[in-house]
Amino acid sequence: MLELKHIHKYYNPGTVNEMCLFDDFNFKVEDGEFVAVVGSNGSGKTSMLNIVCGSIGVDSGKILINNQDITNMSEHKRLSKIGRVFQDPSLGTCPSMTIMENMALAENKGKPYNLGFCVRKKRKEYYQDLLRPLNLGLEDKMDVKVGSLSGGQRQAMALLMSTMTPIEFLILDEHTAALDPKTAEINMQLTDQIVKEKKLTSLMVTHNLRYALEYGNRIIMMHQGKVILDKKGKEKEALNVDDVLAKFNEISIECGN
Ligand SMILES: Nc1ncnc2c1ncn2[C@@H]1O[C@H](COP(=O)(O)OP(=O)(O)OP(=O)(O)O)[C@@H](O)[C@H]1O
């Protein structure tokens, strides 16, 4: 279980640009939940993910994983429990390294990287077995530099790599936003498959309302640092894209747009 308790977060405190994003923000994700996070621009979605991952600190409040207080745990340590995929495919893979090297790096996340090339060579078949179900032919390009792959291929690899070590949480930050519709769909199906197979508790920020409703078992909408809609199970299943759009319109009218 992941909990954000009484989170207060200011950006640029003490300056003319001071901005309070979270003012007593509370949010709980139960084990096994796949939460789709939608919301207006600037509502705090990415900031929330950054707070969970430890990429940014909080001014007060607590972050708990299975009742363990991780508020002061470094980002590096937290990432042993958390896998993260970003919108930009180049952030999840190393472009100057080959597919083989990237996979070896991902498998050794959190360990000193001193395994000999021979050891890695023995893993080649294992990595190829992992890549084959993607149906992208990557298993035949083990020595190709990742920088020469397409965005969709790299994002599929990023997804696979982020879940190669035994993580508890998967954090997806608009991970299909930069992909063409067909590739985005393939990556979403792959996400769903990995989440189900590995029973990962997941948080997925997306602006694609269809994905938010079709995938996962809970949807939240954020606005101005608050959760303004939270539906799961049958209540979520009963929602359609028009319902969610109507809620977006409500927010826009409130903001005078
Ligand atoms: N490093 C930062 N310094 C100052 N302000 C920031 C910083 N990061 C985010 N903000 C501000 O915090 C607010 C929330 O930003 P955040 O990126 O979390 O929103 P978001 O919901 O992910 O937006 P989008 O849908 O546009 O990606 C915005 O007003 C943004 O300008």
Q: Which short descriptors sum up this protein?
A:
ATP-binding; globular; 257 residues; single chain; alpha/beta; binds adenosine-5'-triphosphate; 4-stranded antiparallel β-sheet; Rossmann fold
Plain-language structure description:
The longest helix is centred in the last third of the chain and has 17 residues, at 181-197. This protein starts with a strand and ends with a helix. The strands form 2 sheets. It has a 6-stranded mixed sheet. A hairpin with a 7-residue loop joins β1 (2-11) and β2. The chain has one domain (2-94, 151-254): Rossmann fold (3-Layer(aba) Sandwich). It has helices at residues 45-53, 75-78, 99-107, 117-122, 124-131, 151-162, 181-197, 209-214, 233-237, 241-254, and strands at 2-11, 19-29, 34-39, 60-65, 68-69, 82-85, 169-173, 201-205, 218-223, 226-232. The protein is of the alpha/beta class. The chain binds adenosine-5'-triphosphate. Adenosine-5'-triphosphate binds at residues 11-12, 21, 39, 41-47. Adenosine-5'-triphosphate binds next to α1.
